[in-house]
Amino acid sequence: MNPPIATTSPLLFFVACVSKITVVLALAALVVACMQRSSAGSRHHVWTVSILAALALPFLTVLLPVWHSTTLAHAATLLTTSHSAAPTPTSSYAEPMVVNATTLATYGAGLWVLAIWALGAAILASRLLVGLIRLAILSTRSHALLIDTWNSDLRTLTESLSVSRAVRLLQYGDSAATPLTWGLLRPAILLPSGASDWPAERRRIVLSHELAHIARGDWLLHICGELVRALYWFHPLAWIASAGLRHESERACDDAVLNSGIPACEYADELLALASTLTNSRAGVCPALAIARSTNLERRFAAMLNPSLNRYASRTSKLLIKLLAVCLLFPLAALRLPTQNAAGNFTGTIYDASGAVVPNATIVMTGLKSKTVDMSTSAADGTFSFKALPAGTYEMKVMKPGFEAYHDAQIDLQAAHDQSRNVHLNVGSVTESVDVHAEGAGQTGPSKGNTPPTRMKIGGEIEAARLVKKVAPSYPESAKVAGVQGKVVLHAVIGMDGKPLSLQVLNSTIDSDLARASVEAVSRWRYSPTLLNGQPIEVDTTIMVNFSLLP
Q: Model confidence over 404-416: pLDDT tens digits?
């Protein structure tokens, strides 16, 4: 018997991850839509949790224990075509070729899908990489801003915002460059060359806004959003989540500036002046955070000038969002969808004892836990195939007239794995029965009830043994006088010449005279030899001799 052959399905894993991420991002969009009266910080927290969950889901799916949903599995079973009915001989001959061709076509299509996805992800990831390289170049071409007024305001605001990391103030030679913020361990704020002459109020506004980004860790979250957009570039919700994360982070920092005591009108005037005089970098190319990016200024102005809006994100709401996200994320990552719960194709070939293939054998797969029964038949070339059985442990039976039934009670089918199992059937044994009565009349020829042998296509050709000479045992006189009766069970091997060999009494408690009479008579029986593919073979036989006394 050949060992199982297993193959993995990256496309199936990819589709499952996309399905789960769709659930996460769709729920996040729904929650954000219901939180329009909440603060921008709270909505930003929802997008943050969904972005981080989208990045973590593929890893958690691999690491967490598997959870199969019975409800989803039953729903999938109802929506798919049943494969448990045994096909007709005509369809079973063509089925293995159809299954193999479909499998190959699906495999090839899966490779194309993954290749297209990888190409799109590489393009967006390269854009992000180019942006990071540009930021590194800007850092090397900039010089530290050593003006006392700027550094004094920087120290004051970092203390008020509890920023413990050392923040670098950099100045670039371009006087029209918009202020930018980036970095995690060594965050930097890039200012244009004309920033030295800015008034104190503009200086405080710019530093408050950029330091709010640093205190909140927005730059790293923005990079995570760009990674999600690169990995799932084909998914509209990935673009919506990434844009929502950026927009809500800007509005949350606007709220932080207003909460510091700066009037909304003054803040809006300065923000408009910066947007009209400075040059903005494109968000897709420059992964830094800019105070005056023009893409969403109108909504920001409307929000900052609305005094009725909530501008505080409570710790309780953030904790509740995280708790709900964890309660959703871990079960969702461990869940296996119906397609993932299905094993790959279970295939194999049925052979006889000579190595020839066996067509039209019945194969029965019984689920030990699900109690489901799936049946198929072997094709003309002896092959069989079960498509997408639910993963689990199965009992396998192979039956064919003229052969002993094959039985394997422990076959483990794993999700998304193809397995192959070849089966070799042994020739079935011959059973004969004869009744011996007290009068002991002898008889020759085949016993009553025997039927002429028939030929059947099993592998090559098989012709079952048939009894051509049968000598009835005589009832021993000593047994008749003693009133002894009973059944003698004999085991023998029909040799290639048709003679019984190795006669053995199986029930040793039977009367010895009855056993002796049975052996003496059966040893003179003659069979036509069993032919497998035209060649004689030895075959086991069980013979039962019934001794009974008439009243």
A: 888 888 888 776 5
